[in-house]
Amino acid sequence: MIQHRARFACALLVLALATRPAHAVNKDLVQIQSQIQDLQSAVARLQQSNDERMGVLKDLVQQNADTVNKMSVVIGGLQQQLRTQQETTNGKIDQISSQVQSLSDSLDEVKVRLNNLEKALQSVQNQQQSIDAALQNMATPSVPAPTSPTGAAAPSSDTPSTLPPLPSSLAPPAPVRATPSAAAPSAYTPAVAAPTVASLYKTALSDWMAAQYPLATTEFNEVIRTYPADSLAGNSYYYLGEIEYSTGKYSNAIKDYDHVLDQFPDSPKAPVSYLHKGKALLEIGKREAGIAELRTLIVRFPHSPEAVQARSKLSGLGVPAVAKRAAQ
Questions:
Q1: For the whole model, what pTM was predicted?
Q2: pLDDT greater at residue 133 or residue 241
């Protein structure tokens, strides 16, 4: 822009000189050349000043870019640390949940064993009572008092007597105790009782803990078939779901968890059934349904260890733990 102005000024000077007399041309040319040099010097100074300013601006831009890059590196490191901490926390939560679940399973087994001991003690007591009754029935009946050779009744044992003892030839024969015949049937024949729900469940739980899944599946189904309304049937549905979940049969596992939640909503296995059902739904691609199950768990059992895992899972999915209410 400055160069265009200088050229325009030169053109004006040339036009002005064209109207002057010829004797003043040389003097004017010298003056014009001097002015042109001044203009060129000014233009050069302006150009140098602009170059210096551009250099300063470039340095500032470069410094800002370096600062932004450094901040990006720092932020990336912080994000990685946060991810690592979150993964570590999730791993610890899962580990604690597994330990709590193992303790719960062990507690179930202890309860089953205590129930079996109680049943066995009751059975022993019943057998003892039956044996006592049989012994009483086997007791010898009373024998009539012997009579004397003259036909008179012998004196009663309640009546004191000072008579000398009878000779051995005249003494009454000793009473003979009746003994049961060898061929006679026993007075006590214990009946074979059907297996209790506790014994069936204990056997199935032991096989499940030993990873004998096919056998445990059969035994848990037997518990459900024989005692469908018992609370241990709800536990059996849960462990059937766990077997299906561990083998990747998520749809079948969801059905088993539904039995627990629908038929036994107050079961101790309800919270973990919600948790594993939600995870199974996520595994088969039903994201919204899985999120809904996890949120239901948080609402119904907010202080349970499973609710903590559900919150962590929802946080990893990038969704809030509680659904936002629709705008009215």
A1: 0.49
A2: 241
